[in-house]
Amino acid sequence: MTIDWARQRILILAPHPDDETLGCGGLISKAKAAGAEVYVQFLTVGDTADHSERGFSTAGERYAEIKEVADHFRWDGWHIAFPGDDHHLRLDVLPRFELSNAIERHSPLSIAALEPTVVLSPHRSSYNQDHQATAEAVHTALRPSDRRARHHPPVVLTYEEAADQWHDGAVPAPGLLVELAEADLEAKLAAMRLYGTQVHDHPHTRSALTLRSLAVLRGMQGGVALAEGYHVLRWLA
């Protein structure tokens, strides 16, 4: 099963800045090199008390990091749907109707406005409440319906992060493996370094060694050197 990345318009739904890189950084590099369009819809960002050497990061610092990462990956566009401390780490108390509608039609990078061919969202197994709320809202926004009336992205995938494995139930293995070149993984690791308020030394779920180790594991499962894993919600061939 293959996909021609050069022909795709990709929309990534990221609860916070860095989630798109943690889950899809290698694919972003691979797809952009092939000629794809890549857009990132962040759901929220705000001031953050980080368990890191920085100790605290402001929304302004996070915006500056996004701009650097956007230039690094050459994104075609990005947007934050619900900025500010009223929403950051509080998406689970935002009415689902409002969150789903932003993804479906009310954002400049909504499904209706962008008409993407590939949509990527977080997996619902995450322990983070913002990730869970985003996953559920995307599930609603991309519900099956008559595609003559609503845009139906033919490929809908959920991405994984290393922290998702912290779960008391069985998290299924990714059903789709995207092979990465070493250059794709290096681009992912470089992007995480640009998220200076969020990257950590090992052992941590956002360390370079963790990201490389997960790519090696997924690559081994596909019989290649490196890969990223995705769960398939829709693949219309």
UniProtKB/TrEMBL annotation:
<dbReference type="InterPro" id="IPR024078">
    <property type="entry name" value="LmbE-like_dom_sf"/>
</dbReference>
<keyword id="KW-0378">Hydrolase</keyword>
<dbReference type="Pfam" id="PF02585">
    <property type="entry name" value="PIG-L"/>
</dbReference>
<dbReference type="InterPro" id="IPR003737">
    <property type="entry name" value="GlcNAc_PI_deacetylase-related"/>
</dbReference>
<keyword id="KW-0862">Zinc</keyword>
<dbReference type="GO" id="GO:0016787">
    <property type="term" value="F:hydrolase activity"/>
</dbReference>
<protein>
    <submittedName>
        <fullName>PIG-L deacetylase family protein</fullName>
        <ecNumber>3.5.1.-</ecNumber>
    </submittedName>
</protein>
